[in-house]
Amino acid sequence: MKTLNHPLILMLLSAVLLSACLPIPYAQPSPTVDLNSINTQVAATLTASAPTASATQAPTQTPWVITATASQTQAPTQTPWIVTATYTNTATPSNTPLVTNTPTKTATPNPTNTPEAACHRAELVAHVTIPQGTFMAPNKKFTKIWRIKNIGTCAWTDDYELVFSAGTNMANKNRFLLESRVNPGSTVDIAIAMRSPTNPGSYTSDWLLRSDDGQSFGLSTSGKTPISFKLLVSSQVNRDLAFDFAADACLASWRSAAGALPCPGSGSGKLGFVIPTLAPNLETRHEDEPGLWMQPDHDEDGYIRGVYPLFEVTSGNHFTAWLGCHGDSPDCNVRFTLSYITQNGAEHEIESWIEKYDGQLTQVHIDLSSLAGKSVRFVLTVEPNNNKFDQADGVWFLPAIREALPD
Q1: ∠ CA(372), CA(373), CA(375), 5° rounding?
Q2: Are residues 292 and 195 in the same domain?
Q3: 8 A C-beta contact, residue 82 and residue 72
Q4: Is there a single domain that holds both residue 298 and residue 348?
Q5: Cis omega (within 30 of 0) for bond into 264
Q6: pLDDT above 80 (res 314)
Q7: Who contacts 345 (Cβ-Cβ below 8 Å, separation ≥6)?
Q8: Which of 235, 267, 295 is the last residue of a domain?
Q9: Residue % of the chain over a pLDDT of 90
């Protein structure tokens, strides 16, 4: 269907006005106005000229609503059509935001502070010879052997050294090259020839390992603990003995009812302790020769015992010692026991002695000839005689195995 343009409307309105201006004698009859036809044409014209929604308009907007209001008055006065164009926005705004591809933040766990494996680390496996606290005569030659494990990630080559770091150097030089390569996880025995100092006293010798690029390191996870040993030098030490239980006390494995014990001990605590000493405090006097101060753990069935390394007994060997209470234990009531363990693990008691604080010492001489030709582990034990641990504080003074009884 064709639509009327704006000129057509003007022509119609002009015709109406002209007819109204003619003189009365020449007045023409009033034309019949087809309101429906005009309404249709006007609406079509306005519809065609209404704004067209562009592609960018929101699809939710309501199109233009056209309202045509007609006012019909009797001729000769005609009121023109009043056309009102109303834009009604019936869309309800949506508060829903556009979907965006916002990345979801994933919580990242904090990294753990796991330390990196260290290249240079060492662990002391054993004092193969001369354990901590060994008694030794002055100016005596000996060989110190440490068994060391490589617990780092780098191999030790024969360019690595053991270097003196502090204390008393009893060797003839300050550094010693390793004799072979030591891979991570492997052990090596480091043997150094030494000589005890000429003056009596307590001596400590500290050493560190040094890599081929000059980095020094030692024991523990920090790598700063030196490889060391402690030596007690005394002119009273008799190295002519077949075996000295006090001087070699730390070669033994020490235990109480509370578990394994260190040697030397601290002299305090509830776990029990053993202390090799060059100045034992006896109930009769203070001495200046080797002895063993032993105290059991603080339990009703407490005890302390040391199991010594294998010893091959020969004909004529005797066990000798003096037994007494510690000088600071006036209520002492203790049992001393000497026993041995065979190679099949059976333990046999040789003899036991009861000692009280009475101002006297008990002298012991035991003939070991019945064990001649056998390799056994001797055991020294101290335990309460009356189940009172605080009254079990004993001292083995000059415990030893001699080739023959002294004159």
Answers
A1: 100
A2: no
A3: no
A4: yes
A5: yes
A6: yes
A7: none
A8: 235
A9: 51
Distance between CA 405 and CA 407 in Å, rounded? 6
Q: Is 70 helix (H, G, I), strand (E, B) or coil?
A: coil
Domain count, the chain: 2
CB 302, CB 387: distance < 8 Å: no
Contact 119, 152 (CB under 8 A): yes
Same domain? For 247 and 388 the reply is yes
Residue with tokens 């008694």: 135
In a domain, 24, yes or no: no
Residues 255 and 388 grouped into a single domain = yes
What is the per-residue pLDDT across 183-221, written as a single tens digit (0 to 9) for each? 999 999 999 999 999 998 889 999 999 999 999 999 987
**3-state helix, strand and coil shares in percent for the chain, rounded to the nearest 5:** 10, 40, 50
Q: Is 389 helix (H, G, I), strand (E, B) or coil?
A: helix
- Are 219 and 261 within one domain? no
Burial of 101 (0-12, 13-18, 19+ CB in 10 A): exposed
| pLDDT tens digits for range 223-234 | 889 999 999 888
Q: Domain check: are 223 and 246 in the same one?
A: no
Give whole-number Cα distances, 127 to 36, 135, 206, 227, 353, in Å.
124, 15, 14, 10, 33
Query: Where does the pLDDT of residue 279 fall: very low under 50, low under 70, confident under 90, or very high at 90 and above?
Result: confident
**In terms of pLDDT, which residue wins out, 215 or 116?**
215
282: domain CATH number is 2.60.120.200
Could you list the residue range(s) of the whole structural domain that residue 365 is in?
239-407
Q: Which two tokens stand for residue 321?
A: 């010692």
Q: Which two tokens stand for residue 271?
A: 């776990």
Query: What one-letter code names the amino acid at 350?
Result: I
pLDDT in tens, 249-261: 988 999 999 999 9
What are the Cα distances from residue 166, in Å, to 125, 140, 174, 199? Answer: 21, 21, 10, 18
Angle at 258 between CA 255 and CA 260, to 5 degrees: 35
Residues 272 and 297 in one domain: yes
Instruction: Identify whether 392 is part of a domain.
Output: yes
Q: Are residues 134 and 199 in the same domain?
A: yes
